[in-house]
Amino acid sequence: MSLNAGRFSAKLLDPTLSARSLYGAELRYYRERAGLTLEELADRLHIEMSFLARIEQGERRLSDELARAVDDILGTGGFFARNLVVARSAPAPGRLTPLAEWEWLATAIREWDAALVPGLLQTDAYAEAVAKTYAALLADRPTRHRWDARLSRTPVLLDPRGPRYTGVLGEAALRRPLGGPAAMAGQLHHLADLVRRERITLYVLPLTATPHPAATDGALRVMTYAEENPTLHFTAHHTGTHQTDPAAVALAHLTHDLLAGAALPPAQSLTLIENAGADYRAEATGERSAERAALSE
Question: Which of 13, 69, 139, 240 could form a disulfide bond with 235, CB atoms 3.0-4.6 angstroms apart?
Fold first, then answer.
């Protein structure tokens, strides 16, 4: 293999981050106890060394077949096959790259955001405006870096094999002019295009709607998978939690359903999005015309 095994093996593991991290740390322990390098075990499992390294780092999971093979090769007494439920728990929270990869694994994504267009639906211009607005308020450097990295991840929704996306947006997300009229016009056109191409379903909770206990200034996302436990992410735009507790996931599903029920139907929501986008386009065009007039004077 051409990859540098040392850079994977030397990475310190923290088994306290999550159950999956502990599972991965145990894999490294048993591998090293057997006197095998990452490359040697990967060869015997017929997988990429980088994939095996990321299992040890708690970022990917073992399949049933791989877990049994690991038990056989490392002589663990069935430890990894017996504890597959741990391997399928959520990865450590706050890891942007693994989260983006999990979006590709999801079969369905359900999302609510009171104040912003969710990251998966953002254009690059809107994402940059969000990062500039919120990252400056964050003292934690890694958190600022994650916000700065929030460029559009829409391609996962454009893939025919991608997850089915259902979102509920607070109308405030459409009315808050992040990045200015031109950026907002492009963002709302993007939303309408995704809806019309039947890649997503969107509901808008209007500002005139009866106050809803779940419609707070925050965001939630539930992702479901074919072979993983569902995961729940709840954020307040500067901090977030990540969990797989079945009761919390079930409550998030119920919350999303209640918000969708209180929102405008999809057809009316699309009309509201397109009308708001037209207003932003007119405003952006008017600003450009005024600028040209001022320059010509």
Answer: 240
